[in-house]
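Reopening: Ras-related protein Rab still failing for me.
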Amino acid sequence: MAAGHSTTTSSSGSITHKHLFLALISTSTVTTPTTAQPQTIKMLHSCTGETEWRMQQELLFKVLVVGDLGVGKTSIIKRYVHQIFSQHYRTTIGVDFALKVLQWDSDTVIRLQLWDIAGQERYGNMTRVYYREAVGALVVFDVTRASTFEAVLKWKDDLDAKVTLNHGRPIPAVLLANKSDQIACQLPKLDFFCRENGFVGWFETSAKENTNIDEAARCLVEHIMNNEESSVSEREPTSILLSGYASTARSPLNCSSCLK
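Support: Ran it again with your exact input. Result attached.
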């Protein structure tokens, strides 16, 4: 996989009903998360001096970040999007948002809309609304608190019950064993745990030390893109190869913690 150079943009902070309404509208009426949106035409100059025009597609993917209160979801998002870390983030109330822009390859820009779901929301009635149109999830627990790991399957079951892909399969979810910079409690073999419970991979992460956060997100996006390509293939069973068109193939993701 050729994950391109990433850039970041806004936006998280205190959420009002207006912000939530606008975010919900953006994922339900402006574009569906798996719809390719051609945005720009790139002009490339080859070594022969000829000019090549190429359409660049832009994809919007809604990704949920869930887990119990205090496991470090906001810290992970802040580190991933803004490359900052603080010990003093306020507890998320309801839902918060951030946007990460990735140059996935020469032809594709991906906009990841990250939804930071408050830890107590699993007990509320709004998660079905928050989960709507999501195509992937990061499920986070704190390695120093066994109770947060015990809650992981409840979060996974909640996701599977309330949001699915177009073909009815569950959205891909990556498990994050967060705060790996601290002394961990005893955990089961997570490779086996993930395979048994439908996670596509797991990573030990630390927002403080910036450990494996980019890698975990890349693993999730790779699975989202595979689902997107499968969906496109189902919608377009036949194709015509145009003479002179060159596509860039992505190599498989090389990550021992990203399950295939």
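Residues 1-14, 28-36, 238-256 have pLDDT under 50 and may be disordered. If you still see a failure, please send the error message rather than a screenshot.
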